[in-house]
Structure formats: C-alpha cells, structure tokens
Amino acid sequence: MFKGRDVVSILDFSRGELEELFSAARRMSSYKGRMLEGWVVALAFFEPSTRTRLSFDSSAKRLGASTIGFSSAESTSMAKGETLSDTVRMLDSYADIIVLRHRYEGAALLAAEVARHPVINAGDGKQHHPTQAMIDLYTVEELFGGIDGLSYAVVGDLKHGRAASSFIYGLTRFKPRHIYLVSPPSLRARPEVLETLRKTGTPYSESGELRKVIGDVDIVYVTRIQRERFSNPLEYEEVKGSYKVTLSLVEESGRDLRILHPLPRVDELDPRLDDTRYAAYFQQAANGIPVRMALLSLIAGVEP
Amino acid sequence: MRDTRQARYSLGPLSPVDAVLLASLEKDAWIEWRKGKHYLVSERMPSPRTLAYAKVLSSEARLREGSVERDPASLLQGVLGEAVRCPNPTCITNQPRERARTRFKLVDLSRGGAVLQCMYCGTMITGGKLRSLLLEELAKHA
Q1: Quick check: A294 and A18 in contact, CB under 8 A?
Q2: Is the Cβ–Cβ distance between A84 and A107 less than 8 Å?
Q3: Cβ separation B121–A127 shorter than 8 A
Q4: B90 touches chain A (CB under 8 A)
Q5: Measured between beta carbons, which residues in chain B are less than 8 angstroms from residue A84?
Q6: pLDDT by residue (tens digit) across B60-118?
Q7: DSSP letter at B67?
Q8: Do A109 and B119 touch (CB under 8 A)?
Q9: Residue B69 forms beta bridges with which residues?
C-alpha cells in the first residue's frame, strides 16, 4: 500500500511492495497521459544533485504534475538561518508531495514527521537513498529477470555512500546468493548495515580486493569515494584512487557480469567499459524515470 | 544514622563505573556491593532509560524485584525518548535549533548484547560509547 506514504528508507518496504513498484514501472515505460494533472511536487534539494533532481522533475512532469523547488541550501531561507522544520512546513502548504535531499542523516524522517503530505527521501547524508535502491533493484531485475540467486559485489566507499547502503538494504528484501562488500579498510560498511545483513540472514563477506571475488560475481555495484562526507580532508587523500574497476579485470573474471554505478563517477570506472556489454549504468540512470514515475503515481494513489 | 530505605528493586550486576553512572541518573537510588558485584538498588522501579542503559552496558544485568528476576529489555516498550545525545555529528538531532529530539530504540544484536540505535540516523551506540557519553554528561554537571 503506497498511497499517502512517506519514503524514508527502503527498509520500510517489503518484497511484495517493491515488486508492485517494479510492475508499475514496467507499465510506465509506455505511459502517455496526465494522471497527476493539478498536483504540485516540491523538489527541495539542499544538496547538489543532477540525476535525482532532474529525473524526479521529468517524472512528475511526464505524469502531468507541476514542480516547484530549489537546488541548493544557499538559495533558500536556510542561508538566513531558517530551520529545516520551518522550510518543510512552508513546502507542505505549497505542494502535494515533497521530495527532499539534505546533508544531515535523519533529515527526511524529521521532514516526514513535520509534513502532512508525503515526503520522499532523495538522500539524507550518508544514510538512505531509497529511490536509488529501487532503481538499482529494478535494473537488476530487467537485466537478469530476477534479483534472487545472484551474487553481488558492492564496491567502494561503503561507509559514507548512501546509495551503496540502500542497495545492500534493498537486497536484504530478496534472496541474493552472496553479497561481497569490497572496500578499503577505512571505508567498510557501517555497523548498522552489517547488523541488518546478519539479522536478515543474508549471506555476505567483506573483502579488500575485487580481484579476489570477481570470479563469483554477477553484478558489480561500484560507488565513488564520497569526498564531501569526509570530516578530515587528509583521510580522503589517503584513500582516493584506491580502487578501480578496469576492463581487463572484468574480462579476466570470465564472467558475463554487469556493472552498476549510481553515478556520478570520478575515476573508479575504466571509461573503456562504457561501450561493452558489461556496462549497465546508463540503463540504470535511464530507469530513474519509469521507477520514479511509478513511485509518484502510487503515492498519489493513482494506478498507472 | 540508620538507613531506613527499602531496597525493592535491584539492577545488576554492573561494573563499579557503570553503577555510579546509572546512580547519577536515578534519583533516590544507591549502590550495593554483594559477592564482589555492584548493583543499583532503589525503592522505585528504575526508569526505562536506566533499564535500557543497563542492558547496553552489561548483557548480564537483570532487574530483580523480590524473588522475580527479569531481563531489563523485557520491560521496555517502543522508543526511548529521553536519552543521551547521538554521537553522530551529522545527525539531524545534533543540529542547533532543529526540533528533532533524540529518540533511540534498544536493539538486540545478532551476536549477543544490545545497543541503542538512533531512530534518525541509524547510528548504533555500544556499551563502550554509551559509557563515554555518560561520563561526558556527568563531568558537565559535576
């Protein structure tokens, strides 16, 4: 049941609900109509964004809704010292759905508590990015015909990366054969993520090197190092460029694997991968539209 | 002067430091030393916050009322409102002027023991971290 619901974490959704969303997303690929005519969607982006903001904007408009919003905290009254709660209260009276990105963890939950209208978390600090995980899982289903039984390597900054954490959380709603968490030691997945894997009985292991596990993997999910989340720039300098997925590494694996990346990327993906069958990250980015269209329509309570 | 208070509830065993920390939170509670172990004792039922903290600080801690002994976690329901600050500096509850008050849930770990988990940012507070946060608070009010 999606109608009127807040989307704070992917952990709030069951497997059945995610499958309902994917089914709606498949129907959205060919949708031409104005089912959300008269609706206003607020895009409140207190942090920079390209894909998420634009795909929410495009999705809302493709459904006939109009959008209002901003794309940085500096362009709002928060620059004058206004609190998030006050900004959300104002948006709540101007819009029917609020899409929110914020640098602090828990901002989306606070907004959902304050607002009467549904709040969709478009990223809160390093914690959650539920709609990205929905897109990622939908892409896996498109590529392999299902999510269960596959082996995944989640590679990169697992400590600060909200897309990586949310993808891992999302996988716990399914039955992956194994999840390899591949990261430099200082960027290991956070304790609460590991505990969720243990509690749900999801098979996983941690590794420092993709080369050691790639021979057993169907999906390589790569993330960039989240420079903006480091409190100490020296720590970033120590780990930057510490991993790279190259074409030769993928070819040597002998696997017909696929690579996902929530983008943007820095230098962790070999550009020579872009035109190979391994690269699925542009398809993943394109899937932002049908999945977010489906989510908006379900939350609005209008069946696609 | 003879102490006339009746020790109706006993919470422990606790380390000496943990007993002092919890006693600082519980009005009218005192510490007893039995068979080499420390217990927080009181006439009144300890607060949910104290029960939750005892569970996080010591997996062996039990609440005894007369001859009935219970796991402190079994007496807790829902979310713990009045609790330590979240140690995550980028948690929304640590932003000045925001109205998010700290809220934690007590989580039993799959590998044994328990932690407090921030409802807003998901940060887990282990026994060691909780101890240092409580010491900080105690020092502030000393």
Answers
A1: no
A2: yes
A3: yes
A4: yes
A5: 92, 95, 98
A6: 999 999 889 999 999 888 899 888 999 999 999 999 888 788 999 999 999 899 999 99
A7: T
A8: yes
A9: B64
Strands A40-45 and A66-70: parallel
**DSSP symbols for A161-193:** -HHHHHHHHHHTTS--SEEEEE--GGGPPPHHH
Full-model pTM:
0.93
CB A278 within 8 A of CB A237: no
Please write the tens of the pLDDT for every residue from A50-91: 899 999 999 999 999 999 999 877 767 666 678 999 999 999
Query: pLDDT per residue over A206-250, tens digit each?
Result: 999 999 999 999 999 999 887 777 777 777 677 776 788 999 999
Identify the bridge partners of residue B65 per DSSP, sorted by sequence position.
B9, B68
Kindly calculate the radius of gyration of chain B based on its CA atoms and give it in whole angstroms: 16
> Considering only CA atoms, which of A252, A247, A7 is closest in space to residue A115?
A7
DSSP A126: T
Q: A109: which 2 tokens?
A: 């939950």
Counts of helices then strands in chain B (DSSP H, E): 3, 8
Task: Give the angle subtended at the CA of B16 by the CAs of B13 and B21, to the nearest 5°.
Answer: 95
Using a CB-CB cut-off of 8 Å, the residues of chain A touching B95 are: 84, 104
Task: Calculate how close chain A gets to B72, using CA atoms only, in Å.
Answer: 21
CB A199 within 8 A of CB A144: no
Spatial neighbors of A92 by CB under 8 A, at least 6 apart, are A98, A114, A115, A116, A117
CB neighbour list of residue A276: distance below 8 Å, 6 or more residues apart:
A247, A250
User: What's the rounded mean pLDDT across residues A283-300?
Assistant: 97
Hey, what are B101's tokens? 């008050």
| Widest CA span in chain B | 51
Report the 10 Å Cβ neighbour count for B112: 7
Q: Which of A16-20, A128-132, A186-190 has the lowest mean pLDDT?
A: A186-190
The CA distances from residue A270 to A249, A279, A280, B11, B115, in Å, are: 10, 10, 13, 59, 41
CA-nearest residue to B93 within chain A is: A106
Q: Nearest 10 degrees: CA dihedral of B93, B98, B100, B102?
A: 40
The Cα–Cα gap between B21 and B141 comes to 12
CA A109 to chain CA centroid, nearest Å: 16
Q: What is the DSSP code (8-state) at residue A128?
A: B
> Which is nearest to A53 in space by CA: A297, A302, A289?
A289
